[in-house]
Amino acid sequence: MMKRLFSQSLRPVWLTMLSAVLATVTFAQTQTLTTEEYEPKSSLVTKETKVERAKFPFVDIHSHHNNPAPDYVDKLIREMDSINMRVMVNLSGGTGDRLKQTVAAMKGRYPDRFIVFANLDFRDLDEPGYGKRAAARLEQDVKNGAQGLKIFKNLGMDLKYKDGRRVKVDDPELDPIWAKCGELKIPVLIHIAEPSVFFDPIDKYNERWLELKQFPQRARPPEKYPTFETLVTERNTMFGKHPKTNFIVAHLAYHGNDLGRLGALFDKYPNVYVDNAAVLAELGRQPYASYDFHVKYQDRIVFGKDIYNVEEYKMYFRVMETRDEYIEYYRKRHAFWRIYGFSLPDEVLKKVYYKNAVRLVPGMKADQFPK
Questions:
Q1: What is the pTM of this model?
Q2: pLDDT at 333
């Protein structure tokens, strides 16, 4: 009996010691958390608005869908209806027969719901007269249903002549293409460069360190690539050479972290517009500046998403339509920070959502949107 009582009296002591050991182990584990593992839960109690549909019908001018099948297109329509997307622009239309197939697949049964942009074929880049041939192909693509031209980010960075020379953004060989777009009155949606910090050292000061750690191939070291400033300088020279051509620069022209610089670009080049695809985190971290910028340049911004994900669109609606605070962005590698809604006025929202796109893209019917 005494032995049993002694054993029972020691049990709380052992339990206390075990709890202490476990707590020590847990604490030690927290000291080795990686950035990827650290997921702090905010204790802030604040308004949280769920926005399931855009306030107004909208155009997504920046989407990519390769060789869509009929059932896939039907699925897109259902998803578009669920979030109030009236028109989707597929920037991956290709050229020649592939373009015709994409136009048939997307616009065949839904002629007013999809827009298809053509792309350039660089396989004959080294043959004399490339620019004129590419312009002629583009003209035929427009006859086959293309309503714009998309330029991918390899221009200026990876695209080279067979002798190793980099094809510069403002290369005179490409001038016939930009001139043809002006003649045909179709916009050029162009992706030049990458976020400026991708060109910076990957160290503790780089705010996109996590993304560059997870995707090291996205880094743009100077021994392999031209500098950010070189690329945007060439880009701006091209804008100046072709004032009759409308350019929509993807991703806020990668000046979302410097809206003053983007405004100066607008002021100098009236033929330049931007989409806001994949840069919501830049706008959301500076809500006052973003509001003022959208109001001032409301005629120069069009809505875009890039990576197609129905749920992620709702974050755009929430940031642009509400004044919610301290919102956790959906892709941590893009933003260590929280973002904030800046609640655009209805008239500005309408321009960003659809009015500017209707004005820029030929053949998009204005009567499918509110006045």
A1: 0.92
A2: 86
